[in-house]
Design goal:
By secondary structure, this protein is mainly β. It has strands spanning about 5, 10, 20-25, 35-40, 45-50, 60, 70-75, 80-85, 90-100, 115, 120-125. Strands 2, 4, 5, 6, 9, 10 and 11 form a 7-stranded mixed beta sheet that branches.
Length: about 130
């Protein structure tokens, strides 16, 4: 069974940076696409970005485009989310998730993802 573990969250001032990591373990073969989502208190889970670990195709929500960068290190089974120029509205719990085995396309809805990590808290505040 696949397991995902996020790390790298924390408290940062507006304009600062954080790098989140999502490490996959267990049976990872043919799980091509990883997505990042976030959920702020009282709000629905929001798609942030996704990457195809094979083709390295990436896709971003408009709200983070130009500020966040998703990348993968397949040797380490790790997907990163580099977050720059952070804003207060980026405050949320960030989750990584994987699309079902064999699915290569990025998707933007939570129901299109199978396995989820436990989340890591990001707080942007002065």
């Amino acid at each position: 069974q696949l397991q995902l573990v996020e790390s790298g969250g924390g408290l940062v001032q507006p304009g600062g940076s954080l790098r989140l990591s999502c490490v996959a373990s267990g049976f990872t073969r043919d799980y091509y696409t990883i997505g990042w989502f976030r959920q702020a208190p009282g709000k629905e889970r929001e798609w942030v970005s996704c990457i195809n670990r094979s083709s390295r195709f990436t896709h971003y929500a408009d709200s983070v485009k130009g500020r966040f960068t998703i990348s993968t290190d397949n040797a380490k089974n790790t997907v990163y989310l580099q977050m720059n120029s952070l804003k207060a509205e980026d405050t949320a719990v960030y989750y990584c998730a994987t699309r079902p085995q064999g699915h290569r396309a990025c998707a933007t809805y939570p129901q299109d993802y199978d396995y989820w990590g436990q989340g890591t808290q990001v707080a942007v505040s002065s």
